[in-house]
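protien #1 (seq + structre)
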Amino acid sequence: MKAFILAAGAGTRLRPLTFECPKPMIPLLNKPVMEHTINNLKKHNIESVVMNLHTLPEMITDYFGDGKKFGMDINYSMEETLLGTAGGLKKCKKFFDSTFVVMSGDGLSNIDLTAAVAFHKKKKALATMVLKRIETKFPYGITLT
C-alpha cells in the first residue's frame, strides 16, 4: 500500500520557527514530527510514500533521502507554487494505483491505519476520512460533522 504525506505548507502559524525549518521537520521527542508519521506508516505495512514539498524542501529530502534508512521507498513531488491539498494529490495521481492513505506531515497521530483501511474496504467507500472528536476549540482545522 502507498501513502501521500502533505509536507508543502508554509507553516505560517509557527513563525518564527518555520523561517528556517519546514513545519514537518520541527523536532518532537528528538526527531522531526514527520518521522513519527513515517514510523506509523511503516508499523502498518505502508512502505511506499510520496511527499509534496515546497518550503525549504532540501531539509526534508536531505533528512529522508530515498527512505531506505527508514525501511521505506520515499518519492518527492516539488510544488513551485502551492497547489493545496487536492492539487498536490492530483499532481501525483499516477503514483497511486489502488487504495492509499493521505497523512499530514506536520501532525502527530498514532492512528490504527490497518483498521482504518479495513473499515474503508468493508464499506466499499470511494473515500474515507478519519476524525477524532476533541473538546478544545481552535479557530482553524475544524471539521463540522
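ok now protien #2
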Amino acid sequence: MPIPWRVIGLLLLAVGAFAAAWQLQDWRYGRQLAEQARSSADTLNHLTQTAATAQQAEQDKRLALEQQLAASEQTHFRAMSDAQRDQDRLRDRLATADVRLSVLLDAGDVAAGCALPAPAGPGGVDHAAVRARLDPAHAQRIIAITDSGDRGLIALQACQAYVRALAPAHFE
C-alpha cells in the first residue's frame, strides 16, 4: 500500500511544527536563562560592592584605632620617661646631699634616752613638729619604691587607655 502524499505532507508539517515549537521553546528558555544570569551577576556585583564598602569601613576603623593607640602609647611613654627623669633627679639630689628626706615624729611617743633635735621655733617651716632625718641609703630605697609605684600606675593607665580604645561602648 502506497503512502499517500498527504500523510507524508502532514507528517512533515507536524515535524516542522514540532521543530519550530522546539526552537521557540529553546529561545524562550535561553532568554530566561540570560535574564537569570544577568540578575545573578547584578546581585553578585551589588554584594561585592557592599562587602568592599564594609571592608573599607573596617579598615578605616582599624587605622583610626591604630593611630589612637600609637598616640596613647607615645603619651604614656612620655609620662614614663618624665617619671624616670624626675626620679633620677631626686636620686641624684639625695646622693649629693642637696636634699634630705625626713619624717615627722610624734614628740609624745619618743622613747626615753633618744636624742632628738629641738623643735623648730615660731619661725620654723614645719610648725614646731619634731622631725628625724632618714639615712641616705634608706631614702634611696624609698625613692626606688616610689619609682616602682609610679611606673606601675603609669602602666596601669596605659592598659586602661588601651582597653577603653578597643571597647569604647562598654565604658560609656
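DSSP finds two helices and two strands in the chain.
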